[in-house]
Automatic annotation (TrEMBL):
The Cation/H+ exchanger transmembrane domain, residue ranges: 6-115
Topological relation to the membrane, as annotated: Multi-pass membrane protein
Keywords for the protein's UniProt record, in alphabetical order: Antiport, Ion transport, Membrane, Transmembrane, Transmembrane helix, Transport
Positions of transmembrane segments: 12-31, 37-59, 71-90, 96-116, 164-184, 204-223, 253-277, 283-303
Protein name per its UniProtKB record: Sodium/hydrogen exchanger family protein
Organism placement in taxonomy: Bacteria, Pseudomonadati, Pseudomonadota, Gammaproteobacteria, Pseudomonadales
GO MF term list: antiporter activity
Signal sequence coordinates: none
Domain of life where this protein originates: Bacteria
Primary site of residence: membrane
Pfam family, one: Na_H_Exchanger
Location(s) in or outside the cell: Membrane
Amino acid sequence: KSERLSEPVRDMFSAIFFVAIGLMIDPGILLQYAWPIAVITVAVVLGKMLSCGLGAFIAGNDGRTSLRVGMGLSQIGEFSFIIAALGMTLQVTSDFLYPVAVAVSAITTLLTPYLIRGADPLSLKLATIMPRRVARVFGMYGEWLRSIQPQGQSAVLAGMIRRILLQVGVNLALVMAIFFSGGYFAERLGGYMSEWVGDVSHQKAWICGAALLLSLPFLIAAYRKLKALSMLLAEMGVKPEMAGRHTVRVRKVVAEVIPLLSLMVIFVMLAALSASILPANELLLVVALVAALVAALLWRWLIRVHTRMQIALLETLGNHQENSGH
């Protein structure tokens, strides 16, 4: 329902956009820079056809689908002349770049429907003139990709690994957002804290500690997911034929080492990204010890907090999908 109601607004702004683009094109400039515009247009169309089509083919699509992808993405959008306008405003590019970017964007946009329409006939034409050996190599490549795709139990395990990695990535993204916010608002927060915390290093310690405490539910969730992943990898990778009677011990070591090493890498990355709010080494050690103590004492409570947030998010997304369906 919402999509149907928003379609007129979308169409109106689309029309405004294309009319605005048309008004920005000066025919005199098109004639003045005809050769650069023609060369760049051909380079963009051919370059994107080859790069996007080749990428689609490498990903496992057939030749016709890959050609459709390449010819359907053979245009540059409005972002190109936004960048050109920004460069001209900052005086880091010459004046001729902006009208050329607008002209190339408009021409490639107008050419796209015709390229999409001609994708299937062109693919059939290429199939008839392509040497058999080349076609056989392409076919063997597609069969090889299909043969290495996980099937059965392997597909289930691959799906589990992807879900775990996705959940770890989401939690780490939230942690990074918290630390980025702390660094971004550090100066303003320091001004508020200056009345009762005068030392800048102590202010950074409070800000860093607050960011770390807010991140604890997500860090614990990432650690638990990484531990589950390491246990899964240990079961899959450490076979009794290889480890013999030490199989259980080796699996335990792998299951413990992988999440610990991952957390070390995560903390090093966070330290590099949040260098602006890191206090002195002594205060940083105190902050880390306090955070570790809080995590140890409130481990189960932090897990419940993260679980409740996850359930609330899923319910919100579910309600949104239901409303969209109605």
